[in-house]
Amino acid sequence: MSTIEPSAQACFLTDDEGKVVTWNPACADLFGWTPESAPGRLLTELVAGEARWPALAATGGGRLRMRFAGGREADATLGLLRQYGAGGAPQGWSASIAIAPADSLSEAERIGNTPLAEVVDLLPGTFYALNREGRLLLWNHNLERLTEMTPDELAAARVTDMLEPRERAQALENIRRVFHEGAEVSMEISCVSRSGRETPTVLGGARVACNGDHYLFGMGIDISRRREKERQLRLSERALHAASNGIVITRCSGRDNIIEYVNPAFEHIAGYAADEAIGRDPRFMAAPGFDAHERSQVRQAIAERRQVSVVFRNMRKSGEIFWNDLRITPVRDEHGEVTHFIGILQDVTAIKQRTEHLEHEVNHDPLTGLANRNLLWDRLDHAVHLAQRHGAMVAVILVDLDNFKAINDTFGHEAGDVVLKVVARRLQAAVRDSDTVARMSGDEFVLVLVDQPSVRFTLRMAERLRQALVMPVSFGGNEIPVGASLGVAVFPQDGTVGAELVRCADMAMYHAKGNGGGVHFYSAEMRRASEQRAALADGIRSALEHDELFLLFQPRMDALGGQVRGFEALLRWRHPRHGIMLPAAFLAEAEESGKMIDIGNWVLDQACAFLRELRQLGYTGLPVSVNVSHREYSQHGFVSGIAARIARYGLAPGSLEIEIPEGDLIRNPVLGRELSTQLREVGVALSLDEFGKGMSDIAFLRQLSVRQVKLSKAAVHEIAAEGSGSPLAKTLIDLGHNLDLAVVGEAVETEAQVDFLRSHGCDQLQGQWFSEPLAPDAVRQMLDQRHHV
Fold this sequence. Notes:
With 789 residues, the chain is an alpha+beta fold.
């Protein structure tokens, strides 16, 4: 525009900070801002000189010097009117600017009738101005449409005439508060048109000073759509509450999906009240150790923001496991982004149990409860398939009971059934959960052992099975002897399909039966391993008979004075072909073959004889420690056997020490307490070996009668060659002393280790640095040289 007309005017909307929201062509012509650049700019930029938005908003505008298009300035009247949102809360301002000489404006013009009318018709809702009597002075076309009244009818009406009778008192009270208290009010009412149509509306208003008087300026927003959405939400909520399936709604929040809603059916199924579940990730109900594959499916689907259906196990608040048929569906916002997931869960535990019961009857032997032939072939084919995929080994063992017909003939078929049930339990107890034990027919059983790490492992497994079967079965006061022949075939060496493996195992079983029972492997390699193991077991028996075993004694030295404080007995085998063998090479086989007890008794006798010889030579106060295994000290009569030896060899109390790894006692604390008490009562000291190798239970150790602890080899070997310390060794030494126990450092091999252990208070030291294990003659010679008494 070339000049600024005195009657020029503009109307637009701003937000709460005075930033332009709407901008029409009239505004663009008057001020020079384009419709594209104006939104977001501050209204105060139009004012010449300093102007602050809070001050303008507080006074409702006023007479100002303003900038117009082309850099021109002129006086103008700025009018600001508060706007309200759907909820009745203040939301932005309407601005009107009128340009006219100050002395030519009438009172009505200063109120802003003409420019304000143009503004209010731009607003989305109804606009009105009331006087104190509640009569309408100013309104927009939207109010006419809402009430279905003409301008003359509105000018003659009171605002309360447009309301439901029950809402008029509240409206009058709000009008009074506006004029007398200056309050800003809002209320939800139903506006009634001349035809009787009701429109839910949010009305809001505030007092405005104009020409020395006050008026109520306000707006109304039609909330029909909001009311309908609220009605639909209430209906949906009632449907969710009434649903028999559990419903969970979660919000996507990084790695977790936080529960925002659960329905009563969920509370009933899971046992958790809504306030106990909301705010948590649904994974808190996961049953540990179950259904890892299904849970990974859920995680992947959530990560990919897609639908998924799974059946897995969850845990109720009570700790009970239940089967959950879960369907998860993503919920997307208006931008297509997934913001929530809806999970519908159904407790299918009863259905699962019925199905499993039927499947069990179809796939299991009714007498023993083991897998039957149908399930065996299925499990075996599955095991072979997985083994092919992963390059693993599967063993098939066929077990046939010896002389089972004689059992039926001698004791009756009821006794035969009892034997079959006991054998089934023993076989099941001897294998892992991942393995399969099946009853093939009659007295014939088949085992499928998956993920076999080595042939030697399979060999030990077969021997364990054989030993589990040889114990007699009690029936009717009789002890029924049980024996079995076992044939073993291995995938992939002996066959690539299940049926072939079973045939090979069957042939191996008959070969075993023809050779007096026991275990026989189908392959030549396994046959050699079996023969070697049998030879080693025979060799152990021969070693005991031909005095091939012998003891060496390694001295324990006083850490400070260097005196001999005792000995540890160490077992060796002088093998006719392999030379001197350490215990690690044959004790495991001795355990498996049942010869460990005989070897242990021999070692105890030899150690006691050595102690007696030392005493006879005048060397007293030098105890000898003997390592014993769990198989030895857990047998009945172990302590009484030691007491008998002490008496037989005339040993002083405390001269014999029994050495047991700390971890063995902690794993069986009841046995540990009983053993330590019984040993103390017969005058035998208990020494804890491998102290600190695993987890130590200080409270439990205080309950034991222990003389000393021996640091684990790992703790001693941590001490570096240059003498830098081992925090573990120092901690264990302090811990042993806090328990009032002597601390022995064994496997000492370097001067740095000696110096460190001495400097930190270790009581005794043992290892190659001081002396290798000695024969009895060498022990006597060493003691004589040291003149030890």
